[in-house]
Structures are given as structure tokens and as C-alpha cells.
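#struct-pred

JT: dropping the chains for the assembly here, can someone run the whole complex?
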Amino acid sequence: MFYREAGDFKISYNQDNQTFPIRFDRYRYYAVMVFAFAVVPFIINDYWANAIMLPFLIYAIAAIGLNILTGYCGQVSLGTGGFMAVGAYACYKLMTAFPDVSMFIHVLLAGGITALVGVLFGLPSLRIKGFYLAVATLAAQFFLVWLFNRVPWFYNYSASGQINAPERDVFGIIITGPNAPAWATYLFCLVFLAFCALMARNLTRGTIGRKWMAIRDMDIAAEIIGVNPMKAKMTAFAVSSFFVGIAGALFFAVYLGAVEVGEVFNIQKSFLVLFMVIIGGLGSIFGSFAGAAFLVLLPVVLKVVGADMLGWPTDIVAHLQLVIVGALIILFLIMEPHGLAQLWRVAKEKLRLWPFPH
Amino acid sequence: MPESLLYGTEVVLNGLMAGVLYALVALGFVLIYKASGIFNYAQGVMALFAAMTLYGIMVGQVPFAHLINAIFGTHIHNFGWEVPAIIAIVLTVVVMVLFAWLVQQYIFRHLVGQEPIILFMATIGLAYFLEGVADLMWGSEIKALDVGLPQGGSLWIEENTQWLGMGNENFYGFFLDQLDLIATVIAAVLVIALVAFSQYTKQGRAMRAVADDHQAALSVGINLNFIWVLVWSVAGFVALVAGIVWGSKSGVQFSLSLIALKALPVLMLGGFTSIPGAIVGGLIIGVGEKLFEFSIGPLVGGATENWFAYVLALLFLVFRPQGLFGDKIIERV
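RK: done, full complex below.
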């Protein structure tokens, strides 16, 4: 009744090409944007920002990044944690070296540096495919974490081996360090997420995204119809690492504030982001959001239900969480290999005819 | 012999021993991958689960004691009996076979025909699931597994290699862990047994047929489901052996499941589909990482073992994408 295409006429190419061609989708999108930018900052408090919103926003950026590489270009990467670490350390070095420069620039530069590192570790993908590549990306994961642990220059020779985010501001508002207000950190991350999502959405429906998908579907056939596999794969690695680097920089500078690389950016992080992409849906920007939201909320819900309401010991709740996450992943793969995004697509199909199907 | 050469030799020997252990884990991967095309990330957690189950049965723990206590407010912990190692191992094998059947029945039967990467993700999910179940069942504290394997350095080897030092005061003979020696023997026996099984028995032949071509195997009357359960059971058994060896060496704890990560570069190097590849790859990685840590490690800050194997495998793959012994990758459009 509400969600329909009938009567929604397009009278120019621009209208036909817009991101959300269906009017209802477009209005929903505007409503979400207004709510996220103009309402949430006024009602958010520290608990909501730190427990739910910041991890969600940052993981969503990382998931979009990995989705571009794995979902759109078909190159499975298990090195996300390592690339996030690159972003975090690049941001840290920039923050301490140029204290007066805006954080926006630092985070973007950190993304750029990560993109370079990503291309470097993506080079083997020209020769190695499938599982072999997935395992090869683990080399990036382990090597990078080791590098940041062992070379003191990266953590500015601090005694603890940790990196701590100094206090920095944007337009006079503190956004890193312990004194940053919740709404400012939230908005800062939200701006990056909106930017990344918009960019990813437009890249993936343009020429370059179609090249990625051609490589994903069958690389030899893609080569024959004139897609340069090297360019396509390298750009996928670069763009993906750029997003992942931004996520890493925000994760360190805005969310955690202090990072011990072996603890935070270990292989579990790589798997977590990969799970978000799978549960959300491979090859879908919306899926990255859904997957990130799901896996950020799940532990919180479990903790509230298990530890606070039922009063179970926390270690049992932690183990149950592993069981549930594992079972959910298997269930999703069996019932809906295309993830939450596919559920959403099916729901939209149904909504078109609702409430009078046939 | 000069001193550095002696130490180098000892490092190589120890590397070979470590390599055998890596190969042991890698074997489990190869078996499943060959027969069903599933790259089983859960192999390491299976080893952890098997070792924990073995320990739990041996000391008579009540499964899920923690959970039961939390829900019902009871204080049960032990049955109050102890089971000898041999019987416990047999019971654990039964548990692993049951596990294999469950995995086949409830997970991979529904995923037949899916893309390999989906199957791989499913095994990552399985790894999480199994890890949680293992912790819930037997508790997550570190357990000292003792099934009667000898511990400590081998005196016999130390005494009989002392002459190599040529009167050098600082050389007391090679130090080799007895457990590693036993593990080498076990691994060798296991490999020979597996090869014999797959070459000379009816089920082994069926297993190879399934590995070759699912549909052709199906059409000559081989029961695919049974073969897959069989393969998972064998992999479970291999995991149990690996779990016993590693568990006796450094205790049964979460880090045991990380041996899967050690086995991955071995597989890349040796090729995912080759049993000899797993062994040779394991030895190369074992020796390579010990030698690298011994010679280059001190210069760059140590702990290079974490990544060396991966980088070595990566560089190797760039020149030979299918690994040492893997089937040649032929792509058709």
C-alpha cells in the first residue's frame, strides 16, 4: 500500500539513475539521515555511544570495506584486523607528529596509507586465488601485528608498548581522549560512515563496481571481455583497505583511546568483520550495516539477558555467546546464504503487494 | 664441529620435530578437503575439543557441570571415578565419531553444492560453536593432560651425541624432547596407516573415488553420506592424536585451537590435496621458522615464528600457486 512503484514516474535520466529509485525508499533514507544527524546527537548518552553506537558505526565502515573486497570483487581477506591496525597506527603517528592538523585529515590520510599497504599485500592476488589467497592474507594479519608490536618507532618508544590517543579537536570540539563528549564522537564517526557508504554505493554501481563483479563471477571470462584483472583487483584492495583503515583509525582514536595491538587487532577481529559481512550479506552495502548492527547488538543483548537478568556467571555467558554466534552463522549459511540483505529484499518484494497479494 | 654448526643442527632437529606436529594437524585438513572439498577451519578446535573430552572422561568430570550448577543452583562437579587412559581414548573416539555424524547430518548435508567459500565460512562458524560447547562442557581452565607419554629431554640422545662436540666443554649433546620423538613416531605410524587405509581397503578406495568425482562415485553406488561421516570421523581421530600430543606438551587450553593457524601455511606450501605435501610442508615450515628465529630473529626483535611461515608460504605461492604437491590448477571458462 505504501511501498509501491506504481505512479512513480521518472522523467529524466538523473531521476532514473538515482541511488534510491523508489520514492518510499528515498523518503525512508532521508528520514533515517535526519534522525541520525539531527535527533540522535541530542539524546545520546555515554553508555549508548560507547556500548552500541560507536562500535556499530565503526564496524559498519570496516564491513563496507571488506564487503567491497570479498562481496563485490570475490577476494576473501582474513587480514582485516591487520589493516585496521595500519589505520590505527598511521593515525597515531600523524596525530602526534602534526598536532595542529584537523582530525578529519588525519583519519583520511590514515585510510590512504592503509590503502597503499593493502595494495602491497594484494599483489599476490594476481597469482593466488580462492583459499590460497584467503590464507595468504593471514600473512598480512600476523606480519603487521608483529611489526607494530616489535618496532618501537610505531608506538613512539612508549614504555608500555601501547598507543594512547592524545586530545584532539575538530572546529574547537574535543573528539578524542577521555573528555570528548558522546555526541561529538558519535557525529564524527557518523560523518565518516555516511561518506564511506555513499562512496561505496556509487562506486559499486558504476563502471568500476561492475568490473569488480565481473572478476568475482568469473575472472577469466572477465579478462576476455576486456576487464583488466590487475587494475580491478588492485583498486578493490585499495578502496577496501582505505575504508578498513578509516575504521581502524576511528576505532583507536575515537572509540578505544588506547590500543595494545595484539589484543585489539588480532585475528578474531578479522573474523568478526568477516562474520558481519556474511551475516549481513555478501555484495550488499545495506548488508554491511545490518551485519554490523547484528553482531554489535548480540553480545550486548546476551549480556543483559544472561548476566543481568538471569544472574549467570559471566564466563558462561561468554561461552554461550560463542555457541550462539557459531550456530547463527551456520544457520544463516544453510537457510539464507545471502544474509540479512536478502531477507530485506524478500520483505520489500512482499511489501510491494501488501496488503493485497493477488 | 664448530659450535655454531652444532647449535644450528640442534635447531634443525627441533624444527623437524615441530614440523611433524604441524604436519599432524595439516593431515586432518587434507583428509576432509580431499574427500568433500571442505576446507575445515574447525580442525584445530576439534583437536581442542577431543583433548578436553579425553581429559574430562579420564578424571570423571560431569559434562556441562558449570551450566547445570548455574541453572539449578546445584554443586555437582565430579562423578567420583577415574577412567584409565586407554578406555578414555576409546570413548573419546566414540564421541568424535558421533560428532562427525552430527556435523554431517545437521550441517554439511544441507550445504552440498554450495560454493567452497560458503563451506569454509560454515566451518569457521562450526569452530566458534564447538569452542563454546567445549568450554561449557568441560570448563575453560588449563588442564594437564597425562596419558602416560614420557616427558622431558631424552638423556639417551644427549649422552650419545656428546662426542660430536669433540671435547668442547660447552656442548652436552643434542637436546631433544622425548615427547617430540614419540610424536614423530606416532605421526609416521598414522600416515602409514592412513595411506594403507586409503589404498588397500574398500572404504578407503570409496573415499578416494568420492574425492575424485562426487557424481561418478554416487553413480557406481557409493554411499556419499557414509563416506563423509567416515572422513570426518578419521579427521576427528587425527585431531584427537594431535590433541593428545599437544595437550601433553603444553596443557589443554584455548591456545591448542590455534594450531590450526599453524597448519594453514603448511597446507599452502604442501598443497591442499596432498598427504605427502602436508608432511613435507610441515617439515619445511618447522625447520624454516626455527632456523629463521635462530639466525635472523635476534636482529629484528624476535617472535618471528608468528608470521614467518605465512610469509614463506606466500612468497612460495607466488611462484607455484598450487603448492608443492597440489593438483595443478586448471581453469576453464
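JT: nice. Chain A touches chain B through 48 residues (CB under 8 Å). The radius of gyration of chain A is 21 Å.
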